[in-house]
Recover the amino acids of this structure.
């Protein structure tokens, strides 16, 4: 009976760490609209970069509208690609992402204006126009090709004014926004991430629990074997 109780306690202890992992590890967060951060990137004059505008952890949405600002003394939206977005007589390096197109080919992609002198892109709009269709999860809304006009080690690309995520033509989804950055700095180490810290704690606890369980069971089996050996010796002694 005692052995069974110890075994049950050991099994309960072994279940605790995975349960803690489930509680500690972050689940999907709030809906987010963000501009990518490019690490280890020191910009040189004439260099081009691709920066993505993305959504993360969104529910069923049908449209996204975002306005961006950048430093015109450092960057400009690249022009000249015939596959880029045509405004007036100029093709700008702005391209529709795959997020909505992963659900349907019936999408509408629009850009209101690009001003390389002031450093802004007004109303990048992407939407599903097929009835009954929507997209969920995470993905790229738009990709923008920038050209560096002056060398730098850091520059921001910000989300400005109103940005919208819509689940119906008139209903906005509450969300957070995260600005982008191009920087020569290295990306933060993986050990700074909450999920990594939580996982490491859980793994250590799991190892300790298993080790203690093995130690307890070993001592219990040893003591039981010794007790049985002693009882057997006593029985033998009685029949001598």
């Amino acid at each position: 009976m005692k052995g069974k109780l110890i075994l049950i306690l050991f099994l309960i202890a072994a279940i605790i760490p995975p349960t803690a992992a489930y509680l500690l590890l972050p689940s999907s967060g709030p809906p987010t609209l963000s501009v990518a951060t490019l690490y280890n990137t020191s910009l040189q004059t004439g260099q081009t970069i691709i920066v993505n505008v993305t959504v993360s952890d969104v529910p069923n949405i049908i449209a996204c509208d975002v306005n961006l600002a950048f430093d015109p003394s450092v960057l400009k939206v690249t022009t000249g690609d015939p596959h880029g977005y045509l405004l007036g007589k100029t093709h700008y390096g702005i391209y529709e992402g795959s997020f909505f197109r992963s659900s349907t080919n019936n999408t509408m992609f629009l850009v209101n204006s690009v001003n390389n002198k002031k450093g802004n892109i007004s109303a990048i709009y992407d939407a599903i126009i097929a009835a009954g269709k929507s997209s969920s999860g995470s993905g790229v809304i738009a990709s923008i090709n920038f050209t560096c006009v002056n060398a730098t080690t850091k520059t921001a690309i910000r989300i400005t004014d109103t940005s919208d995520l819509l689940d119906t033509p008139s209903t906005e989804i509450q969300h957070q926004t995260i600005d982008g950055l191009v920087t020569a700095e290295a990306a933060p180490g993986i050990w700074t991430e909450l999920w990594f810290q939580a996982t490491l704690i859980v793994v250590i606890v799991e190892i300790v629990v298993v080790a203690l369980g093995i130690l307890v069971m070993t001592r219990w089996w040893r003591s039981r074997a010794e007790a049985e050996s002693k009882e057997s010796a006593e029985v033998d002694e009685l029949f001598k």
Observations:
- The longest strand covers residues 154-168.
